[in-house]
Amino acid sequence: MSDDTSSQSPPRRRLPLSNIQILLIPILIFGGMLILDFRQRVVEGQEKLVEQEALEAQIARLEAERLELEAQKTYFSSPAFVTDWAHSEGKMVRPGEVLVVPMIEGQPIDLPALPPMAPPSVDEPEQPAETDLSPLSVWWSLFFESSPPLSQP
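-> structure tokens emitted (153 positions)
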């Protein structure tokens, strides 16, 4: 029997854990989880601040664009715009003003003469050309894009 005990390894000694050490392990694990959660919240908060700043810049840009568009709307609705347009693009003048058309000196440009057109006759209105198609053949050609089988030679 003594051989059996000597061939076996010596019994392992367990480290004695006190009650304080047993309580300290879950507290450390819980504290580590709290630290990781706090770090994650800080990172998310920083991302939200960056996003908030970008949105505030976009809001400011859109607000400036809105004010500019409102100013343009006010100008385009005013009589001053109508007057400016009439003088510049409309080539209109007020009573008492003289319209000046600049003439370019040099050789005149020859424009081709247009052939005379016959006046339209007032007596007879134009009639569309009549065809000898039955309503069935018209519908058939609309649906099947071919002539009906009965009317083919």
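The mean pLDDT is 82.
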